[in-house]
């Protein structure tokens, strides 16, 4: 899942700076939220603002680089294992689990590009290709509904990612909605209880507690 913006090979010192900036960005977004200033990220990384802007034109580019790295580190290995597994449905669900786990861990990074679907599509293109392979495999095996299209999967995935906005960052509250999606796309509903119900957290100014 390579970042859509191509980068020239970096010198070793420049590569280290990029790594420090991305690591600092994940830390700062977790601590301070989506509105964290780039100056705070630069200071946390131990580099000057000029170094940050030399490598990332704006916050959007930095956020996409950080998301891309996390997808590569945490989701790509799961995708590789799923593609090697003969069971298409099981592989597809493992990929969705890995993606939701990554989305929950970096909820504030996602919040920084909320509503910018075309940006996220740039770093998830190959992921959707892999999901398509697993979907077709599962349909051919009779374990996934034959009437599900990739448009359906794209929208279901968008719905699942949206769940992150209704829970605490790092929470596994996404497991219950994912189980409901699994029930909907399999030809036979799994014989297991739903994961535990996690109430929607109260947020000041957003109305009453839901759940």
UniProtKB/TrEMBL annotation:
<dbReference type="GO" id="GO:0003700">
    <property type="term" value="F:DNA-binding transcription factor activity"/>
</dbReference>
<dbReference type="GO" id="GO:0000976">
    <property type="term" value="F:transcription cis-regulatory region binding"/>
</dbReference>
<feature type="compositionally biased region" description="Pro residues">
    <location>
        <begin position="192"/>
        <end position="202"/>
    </location>
</feature>
<keyword id="KW-0805">Transcription regulation</keyword>
<dbReference type="InterPro" id="IPR009057">
    <property type="entry name" value="Homeodomain-like_sf"/>
</dbReference>
<dbReference type="InterPro" id="IPR036271">
    <property type="entry name" value="Tet_transcr_reg_TetR-rel_C_sf"/>
</dbReference>
<protein>
    <submittedName>
        <fullName>AcrR family transcriptional regulator</fullName>
    </submittedName>
</protein>
<feature type="domain" description="HTH tetR-type">
    <location>
        <begin position="15"/>
        <end position="74"/>
    </location>
</feature>
<dbReference type="InterPro" id="IPR050109">
    <property type="entry name" value="HTH-type_TetR-like_transc_reg"/>
</dbReference>
<dbReference type="InterPro" id="IPR001647">
    <property type="entry name" value="HTH_TetR"/>
</dbReference>
<keyword id="KW-0238">DNA-binding</keyword>
<dbReference type="Pfam" id="PF00440">
    <property type="entry name" value="TetR_N"/>
</dbReference>
<feature type="region of interest" description="Disordered">
    <location>
        <begin position="190"/>
        <end position="211"/>
    </location>
</feature>
<feature type="DNA-binding region" description="H-T-H motif">
    <location>
        <begin position="37"/>
        <end position="56"/>
    </location>
</feature>
<keyword id="KW-0804">Transcription</keyword>
């Amino acid at each position: 899942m390579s970042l859509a913006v191509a980068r020239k090979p970096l010198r070793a010192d420049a590569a280290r700076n990029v790594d420090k900036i991305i690591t600092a960005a994940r830390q700062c977004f977790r601590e301070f939220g989506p509105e964290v200033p780039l100056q705070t990220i630069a200071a946390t990384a131990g580099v000057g603002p000029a170094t940050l802007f030399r490598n990332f034109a704006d916050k959007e580019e930095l956020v996409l680089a950080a998301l891309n790295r996390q997808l590569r580190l945490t989701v790509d290995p799961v995708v590789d294992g799923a593609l090697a597994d003969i069971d298409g449905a099981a592989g597809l669900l493992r990929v969705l689990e890995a993606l939701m786990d990554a989305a929950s861990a970096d909820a504030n990074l996602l919040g920084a590009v909320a509503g910018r679907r075309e940006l996220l599509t740039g770093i998830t293109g190959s992921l959707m290709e892999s999901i398509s392979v697993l979907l077709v495999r599962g349909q051919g095996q009779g374990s996934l509904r034959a009437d599900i299209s990739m448009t359906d999967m794209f929208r279901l995935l968008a719905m699942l990612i949206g769940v992150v906005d209704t829970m605490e960052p790092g929470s596994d509250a996404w497991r219950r909605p994912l189980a409901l999606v699994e029930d909907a796309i399999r030809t036979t509903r799994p014989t297991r209880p739903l994961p535990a119900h996690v109430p929607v957290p109260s947020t000041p100014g957003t109305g009453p507690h839901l759940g």
